[in-house]
Specification:
Strand content: under 5%
CATH topology of the largest domain: Tetracycline Repressor, domain 2
Distance between the termini: 87 Å
Number of helices: 9
Largest sheet: none
Order of helices and strands: HHHHHHHHH
CATH architecture of the largest domain: Orthogonal Bundle
Shape: elongated
CATH superfamily of the largest domain: Tetracycline Repressor, domain 2
Number of domains: 2
Amino acid sequence: MSSRRTNTNAKPPRRSRGSLSREEILEASLAVLTEDGPENLSMRRIAARLGCSVASPYAHFANQEEIVRTLIVQGEARLTGDLKAAIGRSSDVYEQLEAIARTYWDFARANRELHKLMFNVGGGPTYRRVFPSLPTSYRVFLDTIRRGILSGAIRHDRRAYRSIARTMWAWMFGIIVLEMTDMLRSPRQGEDPIDEGIRLFMHMLRSPGEFVYSARSRPD
C-alpha cells in the first residue's frame, strides 16, 4: 500500500480577489503602516499580509492613494471622537483645553505611524486634499476657544480666537514631533511637557492684553 508524502513547506494558496473585503484591506493596510511606517506602506506589502496577489486590492480601491486617504479619514474620525469625549467631561473651558492637549498627545503616542501619515510631511499634501477646509479635529479645538471668549472665561477680543488656536495647535504638534523624533528629553520625575505648556497658555488666556491680535486674522 503506497503512502503519500506530505509537503509541509508548501505555501498556502493565494486568496482570490473575490474573497477580500474592503474592511480587510484597510485592516491589513493599517497593520503594515503601524509595523513598517508610512514610507514603507505599499500594495506589495499589503497584498503579502493578505496572502493575495498585488492586483487583488484594486478590486476595492483605485490605487494606493485611495487607501491612504481612507486611513486618514478614519484616523481623523477617531481623533475627533476622542476630542469630543474629552471636552464633554467638563464645562470649564480651561479644563476642556487641557483635555484637548492631552488627547492630541495621547492619540499621537498611541498611533504614531498613523499620526505621521495624517500630519507629517509625507502625508500632509494628501491630508489637505482629503480635508480642503478645516478638519473636524481642529474645529473642535477652534470652537472651544471661541466659546471661551464669548462666555468671558477667556479674556481676549473675539477676533483673536483664530490666532490663539493656531499658536496653541503649533505648540501641541511641536511637542508631539519633538517626542516622536527623540529630541524631547525624557521628563524627570514629576515633570510633564503638556502640563508646563498648558500652565503657560492658561496664564496668557486669563490675562487680557498679553496676547496680540493680528489684523490679518479673519473672524467668522
